[in-house]
Write a structure and sequence with these properties.
By secondary structure, the protein is an alpha/beta fold. Helices cover 41% and strands 16% of the residues. The protein contains 5 helices and 4 strands. Helix 1 links the parallel strand 1 and strand 2. Helix 1 packs across helix 5 and helix 2 packs parallel to helix 3. The longest helix is centred in the last third of the chain and has 19 residues. It starts with 17 loop residues before the first strand and ends in a 27-residue tail after the last helix. 36% of the residues are buried.
């Protein structure tokens, strides 16, 4: 990753990893640079990916939530670019897309957030370009590290009471306690 401040070593895996790259290509040239960096990092890690495009940054968290419910990805990379304009729409898009991704992450989804929030096109290009800051690769690396942590610590769905790891408990079935 040329020109980046990212310092952790690349995540490694014993089993295959598949990510979903979710891109809001409002600024096509910026999105393409970020996709390039993202793909290179995923491939260098030995992982695979699918790529989808959505209308805008606000649709990225929703799309990731849908994919989590209806598909089988290990993690997600969110890519987009929001450039400040003359209205308060910038703050809405930045805050709400970030909040949506954070809430999904707190539910246990492994998401690398590569949604650029910048003041101008020059800042966007500097951050998106794989030869400069390469934020697409950084977002992919973040998602891959979260997948590695999830695998290290095991998987657990939901909250509250959890049955022994290799058994399922049904209502009314008591383990080692035949009476109430």
């Amino acid at each position: 990753m040329a020109g980046t401040e990212y310092t952790l070593p690349r995540a490694t895996f014993d089993k295959p990893v598949k990510l979903l790259i979710v891109v809001a290509p409002f600024y096509r040239d910026i999105a393409d640079m970020m996709i390039e960096g993202t793909r290179a990092e995923i491939e260098a890690s030995g992982a695979t990916y699918d790529l989808i495009e959505v209308p805008g940054a606000l649709e990225i968290p929703t799309s990731i939530g849908i994919a989590e419910r209806l598909s089988n990805f290990d993690g997600y990379v969110a890519l987009g670019c929001v450039i400040r304009g003359a209205t308060t729409h910038y703050e809405t898009v930045c805050n709400d897309s970030s909040r949506g991704i954070t809430l999904l992450g707190l539910q246990g989804l492994c998401i690398g957030n590569g949604i650029l929030t910048v003041e101008n096109r020059e800042q966007a290009i500097e951050r998106a370009d794989p030869e400069q800051m390469n934020k697409g690769a950084g977002a992919a690396a973040a998602a891959l590290h979260l997948v590695a942590l999830t695998r290290k610590w095991g998987t657990r769905k939901g909250v509250g009471f959890m049955p022994d790891s290799e058994e399922y408990r049904l209502a009314g079935a008591l383990k080692d306690n035949p009476t109430a």
